[in-house]
Design a protein that fits this description.
This protein has 329 residues and is an alpha+beta fold. The protein is built from 4 helices and 14 strands. Bound molecules: calcium ion (CA) (2 copies).
Length: 329
């Protein structure tokens, strides 16, 4: 499942002058980088009330002023004009791209079967809305039973174009979803593949980045193919970060978990891409307060901030762990 997040919707004042709307359309047509050759639309004025559309190549740009719903346009740093909502896709259908990915978090990894703990779900600590501002959410009680009880934590994922060796790369699309106990990444139904709203699968492949709120992010070492249709999250994977260090870009981009498994480095509580003193300070403050729940310094994801979290920090700062994800625009 793929929520069409609020981040893809635009505010729509009840009525804006047609001239301003036309200007907005003209601007978006100029500013939006073409993702496909046929992605060219003539400028069109969208008047208040009702709906109109402009068609270019395989796409239709539809505006419905004052309508409460909107599909996303597509990724690539798109910026539209104010005052109208738009949808891009053949026949008005919103485009989606799905990717089947596997990754482990060092902190949550137990090596058991399934491989990661889901203590945050079991303890009722996971927030109903993603912590990355992506506008993804689930209903109250979702994590209390299957499939929600298989969720380890929320993750953020990016599709990127460009060359990792020559940053900055370009962020094509960002979304949030779930990491499941077996390492699969899923959408907010905790069942189907991770979904990027507004991305046409045929525009891929793209590089893929996985971020976690207190682990170091990883970038796929190769471009990952996209699917236009949703499949179940799980093997066979389009990209599996867990099977080798070389599945992620950079030098020591992951922690060797032993037994042929690799995972995102833990203990970046402040999310600066390094495991250093501020991450210890977060631990120190939280453990002194006896903090429980959804804590930045709960590096092993058991719902408490205690000695095992310090141990993760200590070993990883000693190892000099740092994010290998290149800069991006
Ligand atoms: Ca840090
Ligand atoms: Ca902990």
């Amino acid at each position: 499942m793929c929520n069409r997040s609020a981040s893809h919707e635009r505010p729509h004042p009840a009525a804006l002058p047609a001239r301003a709307l036309a200007l907005g359309v003209a601007l978006l047509l100029v500013l939006a980088p073409p993702l496909r050759a046929q992605y060219t639309l003539a400028a069109a004025a969208f008047t208040s009330g009702g709906a109109t559309s402009a068609t270019g190549g395989a796409y239709t740009l539809t505006s419905a002023i004052g309508q409460p719903t909107a599909g996303p346009l597509t990724g690539g740093g798109y910026s539209g004009g104010a005052g109208f909502i738009y949808q891009l896709g053949g026949g008005g259908a919103a485009v989606m791209a799905y990717v089947d990915v596997r990754a482990f978090l060092q902190g949550a990894y137990t090596g058991g079967s399934p491989a990661q703990r889901a203590d945050l779900a079991a303890g009722g600590h996971l927030p109903l809305t993603d912590p990355y501002g992506q506008g993804q959410s689930v209903a109250a009680g979702f994590f209390a039973s299957a499939p929600g009880n298989e969720v380890v934590d929320w993750v953020k994922a990016e599709l990127r174009s460009g060359n990792p060796a020559s940053p900055p790369m370009t962020i094509v699309s960002t979304t949030a979803g779930f990491l499941l106990r077996d390492g699969s990444l899923a959408g907010t139904d905790a069942t189907t593949e991770l979904c990027f709203p507004g991305v046409d699968a045929s525009d891929g492949p793209f590089f893929l980045v996985i971020h976690h709120r207190n682990h170091l992010g990883v970038l796929s070492s190769v471009q990952v193919p996209l699917s236009a249709a949703a499949g179940p999250a799980g093997a066979p994977y389009d990209h599996d970060f867990t099977t080798a260090m070389a599945q992620a870009f950079g030098t020591n981009p992951m922690k060797n978990l032993g037994g042929g498994a690799f995972g995102l480095w833990a203990a970046d509580g402040d999310g600066d891409g390094q495991v250093t003193a501020p991450d210890f300070n977060l631990f120190n403050t939280a453990t002194a307060a006896g903090a429980i729940g959804y804590q930045a310094a709960d590096y092993d994801g058991d719902g408490q901030v205690t000695a095992p979290d310090f141990n993760l920090f200590n070993s990883n700062t000693t190892a000099g762990a740092s994010s290998q994800v290149p800069a991006a625009n």
